Amino acid sequence: MENKRGSYITGKKAGKHIAEQPDQIKRIDDSFYQVKSQTLKFESWYDVVKTETGFVCDCPDFQWRKHKCKHVHAVEYSQTLRNYVKNQTVIEQIACDKCPACESINIVKHGIRHNKKYDLQRYSCKDCHNRFSFNLGFEKMRANPQVITSAMQLYFTGESLRNVQKFLRLQGVEISHKTVYVWIKKYTGLMEKYLEKITPQVGDKWRADEVWVKIKGDMKYLFAMMDDDTRFWLAQEVSNTKQNHDARNLLRMGKEFAKKTPLTFTTDGLRAYNEAFKKEFWTHKNQFYTEHIRHISIKGDRNNNMMERLNGEFRDREKVFRGLKKDDSPVFKGYQIYHNYVRPHMSLDNQTPADRAGIKIEGDNKWITIIQNAVNSREIT
Question: Which of 34, 59, 158, 174 could form a disulfide with 46 if both were Cys (CB 3.0 to 4.6 A apart)?
Fold first, then answer.
């Protein structure tokens, strides 16, 4: 039984590896695929055909075992990837090509507006004669969008508020470190309300862990939950204690945000997770359909290394600001947004968790794209 289970896991991982490599799978139609042999001695292709009972393969391994081989797993995983593309949510750049008053596209450039800190292109509508400028999301701001988003990028990549101020001063922008914090607070709240309405397409294996943080001089704990397949940071909350914390709200937030429950939930042996698991992940018959892995180890499949990596990210950031002033500091949500939607991860082939979760953000500056879409959706509603 153990050998069968072990070969199944190996075959599944091998199939995923094949599907992620280029030119390894040929899709003839939805029910007929060809998968390249992974044996270096042979340059051949195996036929994987869909039947009433599932996919079958003509490779020797499938013919002998009558069990899913790595070629079948590769096809199934490639179908999952194709479904991600079909259901992908695209956050597009806001097109500045219509008059905000009459929505006419018959507009022309009409000089430059010279603000105190930067210049802004001005336009004129030939239909309604309205004169306007495009600055969605950054109206009445003393700095231009590029400066503001550059400050946010520097801050969440590890610089202190004062170091961000010094960098901007070298660019000829005179602002205080308090102004940088105001920008972060304003736009983090704006993006949070917009992004929480978009459901990520995460996997079925989730993890949770906690890391201590210093807030107003006291040690508190940041509880966080993440998806294995996409590295998407699903939920977080700050607690005054570790052992007596009720983690039910954390699990509920993750479940409501992802609109699903996982098949596997990995944590350490903290009692708070097990009690919350019993209350949040069950069926109407009180039968658990989510496996809770509590006994983790440093090596092997039952480890929490991915979650420890996320804790390390936040720990590196926490060292710079040397403690926080508030439990609801925008740094927590801001860094979660940065981790999910802006920061590329080497383990994801330099994609963001949002990319893997079916959320594509267009544009070279993802901060500006998210902010402008957040403002635009608020105005529409």
Answer: 59
- Its pTM stands at 0.71
Predicted confidence at residue 58, as pLDDT, reads: 93
In terms of C-beta density within 10 A (0-12 exposed, 13-18 middle, 19 or more buried), how is residue 93 classed? middle
- The torsion region of residue 191 among left (phi > 0), alpha (psi -120 to 50) and beta comes to alpha
pLDDT of residue 354: 95
> 64-73, 102-111, 183-192: which has the minimum mean pLDDT?
102-111
Find the DSSP H helices in the chain.
Answer: 2-20, 60-65, 70-86, 145-156, 161-170, 177-195, 248-258, 271-280, 305-321, 330-337, 353-356, 366-380
The closest alpha carbon to 101, from 128, 122, 75, belongs to: 128
Q: Where are the domains of the chain?
A: 2-86, 205-325
Instruction: Look up the CATH number of domain 205-325.
Output: 3.30.420.10
Cα–Cα distance between 53 and 193 in angstroms, integer?
A: 44
- Report whether 180 contacts 155 (CB < 8 A): yes
* CA–CA distance, 287 with 305 (Å, rounded to integer): 29
pLDDT tens per residue across span 230-257: 999 999 998 888 888 889 999 999 999 9
What is the dihedral angle through the alpha carbons of 109, 111, 117, 118, rounded to the nearest 10 degrees? Answer: 40
- Tokens representing 363 are 């544009």
Q: Residue 253: phi, psi to the nearest 5?
A: -60, -45
